[in-house]
Structure formats: C-alpha cells, structure tokens
Amino acid sequence: FPSHDIYFYKPIFKKTWKYLSDEGYYILNVPIDIYHDVCIEIFGEAIDIIPMSNRKRKNNYEEFIYVWKK
C-alpha cells in the first residue's frame, strides 16, 4: 500500500513539471522511495543521479539529487 507521501508529492510534481519551460531542468532531492514510487512514473528515469557524499544519516541512509530535462 503506497505511503501518504505519494499522494502529497504526485500533484505537486505533475503541476510544476507541466509549467516547466521546454529544455528546463527539474532537480529534486527526495528519498529513494519517492524517486521510485512517484518520480519515475511522472518524469521517467533521471538523466543524472548525484550522491550527496557528505550527507549520511542514521542507519546508513544516503541522499541523492535527481535531475531531469524537459
């Protein structure tokens, strides 16, 4: 069962992507589950995934920045 986060992110991401200029970049720092559960469905696979190498959190949680081009 999808998390409540999906219902929060989907409408925001869809609307902001819709109004992004052609050739514009869409860049997000979101948890990996949101990337897989929401972002890929809306934007497709990211053209670049940048690890935030100095931003490790508890339980070896890693952060990434995801990049798409419209």
Strand and helix layout:
Blueprint: H1 4-18, E1 25-28, H2 32-43, E2 48-51, E3 64-69
Antiparallel strand pairs: 1-3, 2-3
Helix pairs in contact: 1-2
Quick tags:
3 strands, globular, 70 residues, 3-stranded antiparallel β-sheet, alpha+beta
Output the radius of gyration: 13 Å
Strand elements, count: 3
| SSE topology string | HEHEE
- List the quaternary state of the chains: single chain
Fraction in helix: 25-40%
- Biggest pleated sheet: 3 strands, antiparallel
Please state the overall shape, judged from the principal axes of the Cα atoms. globular
Please state the average pLDDT score.
88
What structural class results from the helix and strand content? Answer: alpha+beta
Number of helical stretches of at least 4 residues = 2
The low-pLDDT segments are none
Q: What amount of the residues lies in strands?
A: 15-25%
Q: Largest sheet, order of strands side by side? A: 1-3-2
- End-to-end span in angstroms? 30 Å
What does this structure look like?
By secondary structure, the protein is of the alpha+beta class. 39% of the residues lie in helices and 20% in strands. It is built from two helices and three strands; from the N terminus they run αβαββ. The chain has helices at 4-18, 32-43; strands spanning 25-28, 48-51, 64-69. The chain has a three-stranded antiparallel beta sheet with strand order 1-3-2, with helices on one face. α1 crosses α2. The longest helix is centred in the first third of the chain and has 15 residues, at 4-18. It is globular. The chain starts with a helix and ends with a strand.
